[in-house]
Amino acid sequence: MRARTVRRLTEAGCIFAEEEARLLVAAAHDERILEEMVGRRTSGLPLEQVLGWAELAGIRVGVRPGVFVPRHRTALLVREATAVCPPGALAVDLCCGSGAIGMALAARVRRLRLHAVDIDPAAVACAARNLSGLDAHVYEGDLFGPLPAALRGHVDLLTANAPYVPTSEIDLLPREARLHEPRRALDGGEDGLDVHRRIAAEAPAWLAAGGHLVVEVAEHQVPDLVGILGRAGLSARVVRDAKLEASVIVATATPLLAR
Ligand SMILES: C[S@@+](CC[C@H](N)C(=O)[O-])C[C@H]1O[C@@H](n2cnc3c(N)ncnc32)[C@H](O)[C@@H]1O
To answer: Do 37 and 114 lie in a common domain?
Structure first.
């Protein structure tokens, strides 16, 4: 069964056919299900959407077709967010997608109180499933729009892995992303930072004094985003991880400006 699966995946152009076959065979309860899964994978669906899960920072996150697949590089955002997040913190994860970041944070931070937002109903449904059983609320809407007003000025940690691919680069993405992830999850506008500009403008009003905003972007966008965050009154620190090929900015609300 495994050898045949490897062969079919290889013929379909899967680079990691051996590893993918191992995961698919382990996930399928019988040959009929395996056949279906291999068919979906060879038709181009991302492996994680076929399996129904992706791994982020050691956590298995449920994902569904049509929902952004969490990337391994986002482990850096999780690491940096955890480092500035005390037990019992009030956290907001904007652009939450599957809820992956919130899940990973809740596994690391005791008594985390989480609010997660996404604009896409499919992502919201997925996040609601993944975050059920935690101290978490999931909202559908545009950035801060659906959050309870009572959170203003009290958020200890704001995380956002928002879309950051410049529009002109969308066509250069791998087929799997272009065809099977929503454009709204990827397209960040002309320079990739449209959503970040809006987050930076509103973040100071939502953060508690000394609270942190943690965002991920591509390395070439770091200088521009540091400038945007600075002009919004946040003091930014850049963290890079060469192994994960990831860049994260931790922006802190100064006591005077946070309101
Ligand atoms: C790059 S994906 C990241 C998902 C998740 N944070 C992760 O790391 O796996 C970006 C997400 O932002 C959401 N999104 C885009 N624009 C939004 C907006 N204006 N308000 C809320 N969510 C938005 C998309 O629906 C998508 O789920």
So the answer is: no
Q: Is residue 259 part of a domain?
A: no
pLDDT of 227 higher than 90: yes
- Maximum CA extent, the chain: 64
| 53, 56, 170, 184, best to mutate for ligand 1 pocket (most atoms within 8 Å of CB) | 184
Query: Using a 6 Å cutoff on CB, does residue 123 contact ligand 1?
Result: yes
Is residue 127 in some structural domain? yes
Q: Is 231 exposed, middle or buried (0-12, 13-18, 19+ CB in 10 A)?
A: exposed
Q: What is the pLDDT of residue 255?
A: 67
- 118 and 246 housed in the same domain: yes
The total number of structural domains in the chain stands at: 2
Say if residue 116 is in the same domain as residue 175: yes
pTM strictly above 0.90: yes
State phi, psi for 25 to the nearest 5 degrees: -65, -40
pLDDT of residue 256: 56
